[in-house]
Amino acid sequence: MKLLVTGGAGFIGSAVVRLAIARGHEVVNLDALTYAACLDNVASVAESPLYAFEQADIRDRAALDRIFAAHKPDAVMHLAAESHVDRSIDGPGDFIETNITGTYNMLEAARAYWTQQGKPESFRFHHISTDEVFGSLPADPSMQFTEETPYDPRSPYSASKASSDHLVRAWHETYGLPVVLTNCSNNYGPYHFPEKLIPVVILNALAGKPLPIYGTGENIRDWLYVEDHADALLLVVEKGELGRSYNIGGENERTNLELVKTLCAILDAKRPKQSGSYADQITFVTDRPGHDARYAIDPSRIREELGWRPSVTVEEGLEKTVQWYLDNEAWWRPLQARAGVGQRLGTGSTGTTTGSPAQKTPA
Ligand SMILES: NC(=O)c1ccc[n+]([C@@H]2O[C@H](COP(=O)([O-])OP(=O)(O)OC[C@H]3O[C@@H](n4cnc5c(N)ncnc54)[C@H](O)[C@@H]3O)[C@@H](O)[C@H]2O)c1
């Protein structure tokens, strides 16, 4: 299969690119190379004859038409997006333009190409989305997001992703574009950009800095190892039923405080401090405005219909992740110098970074 992967220089997209090439697919990686991108993420496959790179912005329709015509993909896996909730609070405009207008451009470019090819039934437009479109769950463990859960996005990021999901469904219903959708829980793993919670905790711990926890740390997230997500995405693009969406989750619910304590325990074992525990560096900071209380995915559909299973437990995945950051300082160190990284974002004060140095935190 020849896959056009958008956002393939980002965290999840690069995992998809690496796995797709390992499985013998051809990949065209389309990425604008924003602050969140890193071509080192795909360095291991960059010399493969199966790999091509196109630097392009999904807001640029003419560039998309050129890339479709030049590469003639069998399927699109659309991951390019602005992805950081805190940045969406400070500057929602980029999220509207990339996540909504950019997805509209991708749909129109794909539709024009698919029509010009004679509307092959085998073509796929796979839209990769988030569980955050479903809103926030109460603590009751029997309640989980299913594919039937009504949309209720609550941040500029999740609202922009919900909008793009609606566009994708509309292009299927109205124009017959062969689409599949996935909504995934929080990912973690190698190459996670160092403004997100897990890398921030690991790197702040090693640097002797505070480990910032929003609010009381009771917010619950459902964690999925990024390579298991990439595996699920390839399964859906190859075998997913047309027009259907699949929820992908690791069934690994943790409060943020539990997660940070687990990371501290792994670091205590792997890189002990001279005295005390990394957990001593935990610091509670002002909560994110509109912070969703709980996300939890019911992955029954992808498990029962497509046979997908995650390959690692969250304990194994976190252990591998910590080890990866310990082994790959040359990857993460330069990224810490990028704009906004290491600063408290998303407090609701327009467009500026805030907080005393002691409060500078994750995401
Ligand atoms: N990270 C998660 O936990 C998570 C969970 C569920 C779903 N998702 C979704 O998965 C996708 C990938 O997430 P991620 O965490 O890898 O994001 P990321 O921020 O790490 O990477 C996004 C990539 O998209 C590129 N990009 C951004 N704007 C672009 C534009 N206008 N044109 C072309 N390329 C552009 C960036 O350069 C970057 O390489 C997103 O659609 C996100 O909504 C993420």
Automatic annotation (TrEMBL):
One of its GO terms (biological process) is nucleotide-sugar metabolic process. It catalyses: dTDP-alpha-D-glucose = dTDP-4-dehydro-6-deoxy-alpha-D-glucose + H2O. Signal peptide: none annotated. Residues 4-321 form the NAD(P)-binding domain. Its cofactor is NAD(+). Residues 342-363 are annotated as: Disordered. The keyword Methyltransferase does not apply. Its EC number is 4.2.1.46. Keywords: Lyase, NAD. InterPro entries: dTDP_Gluc_deHydtase, NAD(P)-bd_dom, NAD(P)-bd_dom_sf. It comes from the Bacteria. GO terms for molecular function: dTDP-glucose 4,6-dehydratase activity. It is an enzyme of class 4 (lyase). Belongs to the NAD(P)-dependent epimerase/dehydratase family. dTDP-glucose dehydratase subfamily. This is dTDP-glucose 4,6-dehydratase.
